[in-house]
Amino acid sequence: MKIKVILVEDTPSLRKRFTELLSFYDDIELIDSYASGEAAINGIKLLPQSRIPDVILMDIELPKMNGIETTALVKENYPEIEIMMLTVFEDETKIFQAIQSGASGYMLKDESGDAIIDAIRELQNGGAPMSQSVARKVLSFLHPNQLPKAKIHEPEDFNLSERELELLTGIVQGDSYTTLAKKLFISPHTVKTHFKNIYKKLHVHSKATAVRVAIDRKLV
Amino acid sequence: MKIKVILVEDTPSLRKRFTELLSFYDDIELIDSYASGEAAINGIKLLPQSRIPDVILMDIELPKMNGIETTALVKENYPEIEIMMLTVFEDETKIFQAIQSGASGYMLKDESGDAIIDAIRELQNGGAPMSQSVARKVLSFLHPNQLPKAKIHEPEDFNLSERELELLTGIVQGDSYTTLAKKLFISPHTVKTHFKNIYKKLHVHSKATAVRVAIDRKLV
DNA sequence: CTCAATTTACCCCAAATGTGGTATTGCCCT
DNA sequence: AGGGCAATACCACATTTGGGGTAAATTGAG
Prior knowledge:
The structure is a homodimer. Chain A is α/β, with parallel strands linked by helices. Chain A has helices spanning 12-23, 37-45, 67-77, 92-101, 113-124, 132-141, 162-172, 177-184, 188-202, 207-216; strands at 3-8, 28-34, 55-59, 82-87, 105-108. In chain A, strands 2-1-3-4-5 form a 5-stranded parallel β-sheet, sandwiched between helices. In chain A, strand 4 (82-87), helix 4 and strand 5 form a beta-alpha-beta unit. Chain A starts with a strand and ends with a helix. The structure holds a DNA duplex.
């Protein structure tokens, strides 16, 4: 029995690449491909029972309804379909949301064709294929004490300065004032000063609430 | 440069199996093997800098000090060593604790030799190799809809009691121990006791991290 | 009924945090 | 040249927190 696959990808060149890739393997059958989440949702509805896919390759960065929302919708109606996210980004938030929405695989688009094919098979087989760096980040979600520190910010139009955000990120990741001071090569006094200012700007009075606000407002 | 590996495994037959396995690959060098956590801790201390391993293969089921405790100790002193757990069980609690203790790989012992070797390479390379079923379970920790499943299971030591969840909700909302005590009509001492227990279950050591974990894992 | 888990409560003490200050340096902007 | 602001650093002091104990009453399952 071939693994029935559906592709959701808006970039024509990538759609072509994956279509060709899948056609090479005779244990895999590409049922259909769609350029948007809406099209996929509607398209799958029209399929006869025998054509319901086993696996969906889902681009995260889709126009309008993105891959994460689409995944949530698909899983709602077809919980047995396995979904593999495809993306160029290894953004922690996206990874986390993708998993929450019901995806069981998360591969970066720059993986080799072989890796993608293997991942499809593994997914079908009950596994959870992830690109190496993604797997590490997933573990880090469960590992409060040493979360990855990467995090590159874009436009900082907020009240908080760059530095303040850096400090805030630190405490969200569980650092104490002193460890934060060591990490940033500044005095613990300075860290305290920064937090006094951060607290004023966020209108909070404790680390715990600062963490809460930071996460809620997606500051970090 | 060969990948320097240390093996911690108490079963002689398995120690033999892995020792032989590793000897077949010339990009991997078995530095030493130990039959207990204590021996490993002491042995590693005596190694010259140049012989500090890159990877430790750690049996979970060790006598006295188990693999999880040993891992935590090793990572405390050598955070750069990558640790791969080896076990016959795919017990959710063990998986969770292993990750918390600092392991980045988790392979079942019945994997093929090739799979183990690939996993060592992947670990060294920044990945997080996991047996298929383990990877699925890891995702399930992050999947809110499947979390209740953990509750059905055995004494999962990360399952907070009703009351504990109530307390946790309090601090996520910014309460201090004392205000929480007033709200719940209990003594501040009791609040402290609860948090000591909550921290143990969540494997955290501060309000800030507790808040982070609570939100991430959708406990509140 | 009995045992285990939960919830309650207290002691002690070290460490971390929150708040009030003041002050210097360097930078951008006008 | 001067004003504003971000980043740095320090002092002092009260409060909160974290971690080590111990131990009671209550509840629930078997």
